[in-house]
Design a protein that fits this description.
Helix content is 10%, strand content 28%. Strands 1, 11, 12, 14, 16, 17 and 19 form a 7-stranded mixed β-sheet that branches. The longest helix has 20 residues. The N terminus and C terminus are likely disordered. The site of copper (II) ion has 6 residues, from loops.
């Protein structure tokens, strides 16, 4: 749910209005010990909800982004410099209702807050390390002085626990960027340390169109054993939680837009595999990457675009079809939640006899996956405390049987401009929903002039292998 959290907004306003006085006192400060002594008070966020866009109260105006299940970090102006304060720290992240994880992040959340600036802005970021080990922040994709690039050991000493470092540079090119540590990366990224960065163009840009809605999120992945709460950091491939902004469906908010809106979605991938991102009901253009806006000659319509490891993609489309449109990673295992991958395929196996024997000993025993895995979504099977269900998400027609990297783009005629709240499920006009056929199906017609008879195979195996087809529930009745 998108919440207008009054406390949160008050905090932000206090932060911003309190800034004036501090700005005056620091009029002559540059990046120095003086500036550090007057560190901007960090702003924290404890809720995992999608926060309203942070409309800029000063500086050059822009259309702010909305961070899915996240928020934008307020700043203060200090003598013409935009100052931000990031605090790297352990956090508790609700990844889905009923499932919390011990992660690391920034300012109370994983991922950290989105940083939004304007092309040409001079930016100063204070980074305080409250982690039990050293860290650094790398500003992925930015043009900046080499010593501000945040690679621990290569361009700067590590930020030790308890210390604060200052990064300062000019946001030179507009676009879609991210930030993450470049120190003990394997651990720190596996624990959720990352954030989004958007640099808006300072003037009209031939390759950057104005949009009505601009959503951002990062793809991330965790390996949290069912029943536990802390990710295993040694995992390289076999993650069991595929998330957007450290949330898994049905914990990911929907992207709510108005019919006719021009919509931009910016996605960054900080997992260790690629994610083909697929939108239903609309075609989109890839209008930018972390390398900048794409040349118009390279743009073509797609409904799926692959976001490879360490890449960012911004897609744009006209939301001109009303409805609840699925938007998800197209790798089917990435739209599921925690499970082991050592489950054998049991579809069509007849284990009635075995089950009979086992139920004599264990009365509640059931076989997983005998009829496919959909049962897992439907049945409320007992699971350890603090475990995300493998695939859940209740829709208006039943279980959506999805988890992980899945959400819904909700396109509505009556969604007000600037209103990001969830309009509920789509009410389909009468006669526009797939329905059950209630006659008797005709016998299937099959072509007889094609296949083996039309083109005899050569080099056949000496003996024909007979494949037994078994239909679930019908025992050996198949063949
Ligand atoms: Cu994926």
């Amino acid at each position: 749910m998108l919440t207008n959290d009054l406390n949160d907004m008050t905090n932000r306003r206090n932060f911003l209005s309190g800034a004036g006085a501090i700005t005056g006192a620091l009029a002559a400060a540059s990046v120095s010990k003086v500036a550090m002594a007057a560190l901007p008070e960090p702003v924290l966020q404890t809720k995992p909800d999608t926060m309203p866009p942070l409309v800029p109260s000063g500086g050059r105006p822009y259309n702010p982004v909305v961070t899915l299940n996240g928020w934008t970090l307020p700043w203060r102006m200090n003598n013409g410099v935009k100052e931000f304060h990031l605090v790297a720290e352990p956090v508790v992240r609700e990844m889905a209702p009923g499932f919390k994880a011990n992660l690391w992040g920034y300012n109370g959340q994983s991922p950290g807050p989105t940083i939004e600036v304007v092309e040409g802005d001079r930016v100063r970021i204070f980074v305080t390390n409250k982690l039990p080990e050293h860290t650094s922040v790398h500003w992925h994709g930015q043009r900046l002085p080499n010593g501000m690039d945040g690679v621990s050991g290569l361009t700067q000493p590590p930020i030790r626990p308890g210390k604060t470092f200052v990064y300062e540079f000019v946001a030179r090119r507009p676009g879609t960027f991210m930030y993450h540590p470049h120190a003990d990366e394997m651990t720190q990224m596996a624990m959720g340390m990352m954030g989004f960065w958007v640099t808006h163009p300072k003037a009209e840009h031939p390759l950057i169109e104005k949009v009505d809605r601009d959503f951002v999120f990062l793809l991330n992945a965790y390996d949290v054993e069912p029943g536990s709460a802390t990710p295993k950091i040694m995992t390289m491939l076999d993650f069991n939680l595929w998330s957007w902004n450290s949330r898994i469906f049905p914990g990911i908010d929907s992207l709510n837009v108005r019919l006719g809106d021009k919509v931009r979605i910016r996605i960054g991938n900080l997992t260790m595999t690629n994610h083909p991102m697929h939108l239903h009901g609309h075609e989109f253009l890839v209008t930018g990457t972390d390398g900048g806006p794409t040349p118009k000659s390279t743009r073509h319509y797609e409904v799926t675009t692959d976001v490879a490891v360490g890449q960012m993609r911004q897609i744009e489309f006209l939301a001109d079809e009303e409805g609840d449109w699925a938007f998800h990673c197209h790798k089917s295992h990435h739209t599921m939640n925690a499970m082991g991958h050592d489950v054998p395929t049991l579809i069509g196996l007849d284990h009635k006899d075995v089950v009979k024997q086992i139920t004599n000993l264990v009365p509640d025993y059931m076989v997983m996956g005998e009829r496919g895995m959909a049962d897992m979504g439907e049945m409320e099977m007992p699971i350890p405390d603090n475990t995300a269900r493998m695939m859940t998400g209740e829709g208006p027609f039943g279980s959506v049987e999805m988890g992980g990297m899945f959400s819904v783009v909700k396109v509505r005629k009556n969604q007000k401009p600037g209103d990001y709240s969830n309009p509920g499920w789509f009410r389909h006009p009468k006669g526009t929903v797939a329905y059950e056929f209630d006659g008797s199906p005709p016998e299937t017609a099959r072509r007889r002039d094609a296949g083996a008879a039309a083109m005899p195979a050569q080099n056949m195996p000496a003996k024909n292998i007979e494949v037994q087809v078994r239909k679930p529930g019908s025992g050996h009745a198949g063949h």
